[in-house]
Design a protein that fits this description.
By secondary structure, the protein is an alpha/beta fold. The chain is built from eight helices and eleven strands. It has one domain: Collagenase (Catalytic Domain) (3-Layer(aba) Sandwich), CATH 3.40.390.10.
Length: 280
């Protein structure tokens, strides 16, 4: 048998069927690889929960730390010592004081605002007004740029030094006068992990202290951030139009929204797994 004849015999003969009766098969094309499809299946629920959720899942997400993963990272002092995030919580103590030159009225308002947010949530934490510790005064001076530089307060530098000064012995709310080097428009910065809130005096009020106090207590977001909609809460449909304490400053409302209140409560409920009680 010749090579040409072998090739012809190997070709499957197509039945003599009219074209209008032939079955048309389209080539199967998959837009994504198998790995990409599985990645989408796994991550899509997490993406959806950060865009839209319901009240029970919102509360569970705070108790299990799903919505506040940034509150879980350890913090490091200036000397390199690492502290577990929120290690100060076991002290159940928050102190309030001001840098030299800060008015007594401003410190009183900060103290009242911090105590108000603790009481509103129902936490069993002591809020104390104290004189600035000597080591805090040194750290305040070191974190404030002066002389040839434009005056500015370095929050991160102060936070690292304070971890060396007091470790996890307590959390603190500190008032100072100069702008933050991060941005002159910032009125306050707070961090649950290190237990530090710093406020500018010239915009200090009970609402500002309560706002930053809520951040200090673990609510690491604002009410116009994801998830944008939570079924079960009565909220403005346009996130930017929500008038609550935890909107980006300056806020015009002194009341915690139900979503923020329940988030903080459930966040601290998660800490009660170790057998310690944090509620009154």
């Amino acid at each position: 048998m010749s090579d040409e004849q072998a090739v012809q015999d190997s070709i499957e003969v197509t039945p003599n069927v009219p074209w209008w009766k032939r079955e048309i098969k389209l080539a199967e094309k998959r837009p994504f690889s198998k790995f990409t499809r599985w990645l989408l299946i796994i991550t899509l629920p997490f993406i959806l929960l950060n865009l839209f959720t319901v009240k029970p899942l919102w509360e569970l997400g705070w108790r299990t730390r799903f919505y506040c993963l940034d509150n879980l990272f350890p913090v490091q002092s200036a000397s390199g010592v690492k502290y577990a995030a929120g290690a100060w919580a076991s002290s159940k103590r928050i102190v309030v004081y001001g840098a030299p030159g800060v008015s007594e009225d401003a410190i009183t308002k900060a103290y009242d605002g911090m105590r108000a947010i603790v009481d509103e949530v129902g936490l069993d934490l002591r809020v104390e007004r104290i004189s600035p510790p000597a080591d805090a005064l040194a750290s305040l001076q070191a974190a404030t740029a002066r002389g040839g530089e434009a005056p500015g307060f370095d929050y991160n530098k102060f936070m690292a030094r304070r971890l060396d000064d007091r470790g996890a012995a307590y959390a603190e709310m500190v008032l100072m006068q100069v702008p933050f080097i991060q941005s002159g428009r910032i009125l306050g910065l707070s961090n649950f992990a290190s237990g530090l809130a710093v406020l500018r005096e010239h915009r200090t009020g009970t609402d500002l202290a309560s706002h930053e106090g809520a951040h200090l207590l673990g609510y690491s977001r604002h009410d116009d951030e994801m998830p944008y909609f939570i079924a079960g809460y009565s909220e403005a449909l346009i996130p930017m139009e929500r008038d609550t304490l935890m909107m980006p400053l300056p806020s015009t409302n002194s009341t915690l929204s139900p979503r923020a209140h329940n988030a903080i409560v459930n966040f601290w409920r998660g800490y009660e797994r170790d057998g310690r009680r944090y509620f009154k």
